[in-house]
Write a structure and sequence with these properties.
Blueprint: H1 19-40, H2 50-71, H3 76-80, H4 83-110, H5 118-133, H6 136-139, H7 161-179, H8 184-194, H9 206-218, H10 230-241, H11 245-263, H12 268-279, H13 282-290
Helix pairs in contact: 1-2, 2-4, 4-5, 4-7, 9-11, 11-12
């Protein structure tokens, strides 16, 4: 492909600037991109393929944005400040993020439930390789690993690079800790009811466990048993048939709080995660009620 360079844009950086400030910032980004390109090619060339140039620019954008987030500054600082210095400070923030990520990875591995699931295991191993392949100097926005295991609460698609990895690991640690609150044989029995090939298919281990725990809490029953009987489902149907969306979602969130209380979960992030999971059950419950049976939401085994 012909060597060419892309035009810098500050569109990815958060904040609103005047047209004049945007032009000033774009010129500074152009100069910084030229410097990064020369470093990337080790002085051999001042131009690269357009795909590489775009990736280098996105990396600059990522590092600057990480610095703005960490320092609490706004985009205006990029116009008034020394962009080269701010970029170096951004790379230092990314270095700190990487060290945090390594610690989170250790915690995620050590807290993993002793339950076989191929996508879960493959994903954790691949994230381990991320820290060897990640080149934050030039491609800080990249995610050089395969993440197949889907979390219960989906990730923000705007996250990139090490920020994405750290957010993912933080969530998987929450899920790990929750699943490990229950007896392994009960979790496996529930998962088998949820999906007979739970070991091989792309399923989330936390979601069915959290769902049944919330269902039992709604009935003020022992959360640790995990099993929602057919009689329980009839009671839950009767409960939700009398509720509109707002009180139903409140009941689900209140039940999530009772689960946390019973399981002695005091971490605020874990509590919010379960409340979100519980609240998002409502559309499934509403659809199941129209068919007259909540057995597909709260599982028996």
């Amino acid at each position: 492909m012909k060597n060419e360079i892309v035009s810098p844009s500050s569109g990815g950086l958060k904040g609103v600037l005047s047209d004049e400030d945007e032009r000033t910032l774009q010129l500074k980004l152009w100069q910084l991109l030229a410097k990064q390109t020369e470093m990337y090619t080790m002085g051999d060339s001042s131009s690269v393929r357009v795909e590489i140039a775009q990736a280098l620019l996105e990396s600059i954008d990522f590092c600057l944005d990480r610095y703005l987030k960490k320092s609490g500054n706004t985009k205006e600082l990029l116009v008034t400040g020394d962009l080269n210095e701010l970029f170096e400070l951004g790379k230092k923030v990314v270095e700190e993020d990487i060290e945090l990520g390594k610690e989170l990875y250790k915690i995620a591995c050590n807290s993993a439930p002793e339950i076989e699931n191929i996508s879960y295991g493959d994903t954790l191993r691949s994230i381990g390789g991320f820290f060897k392949k990640y080149d934050y100097r030039y491609f800080a926005q990249s995610i050089p690993c395969d993440i197949d295991y889907q979390l219960c609460n989906h990730m923000n698609e705007s996250w990139q690079g090490i920020e994405y990895i750290n957010q993912y690991l933080g969530r998987i640690i929450i899920e790990n800790d929750f699943v490990r609150k229950f007896e392994k044989n009960l979790v496996e029995s529930l998962l088998n009811s949820y999906c007979s090939d739970y070991r091989g298919l792309l399923i989330n281990l936390y979601e069915p466990v959290a769902t049944n725990a919330v269902g039992l809490a709604l009935l003020y029953k022992n959360v640790g048993s995990l099993c929602v009987t057919e009689a329980d489902n009839l009671k839950l149907s009767g409960l939700f048939e009398t509720m509109s969306m707002t009180p139903a979602k409140k009941a689900l969130c209140d039940a999530a709080d009772r689960v946390c209380e019973e399981l002695k979960i005091g971490d605020a992030s874990s509590m919010r995660y379960l409340r979100k999971t519980a609240e998002e059950l409502y559309p499934r419950i509403e659809a199941a009620l129209s068919k007259g049976n909540l057995g597909g939401v709260f599982l028996s085994f």
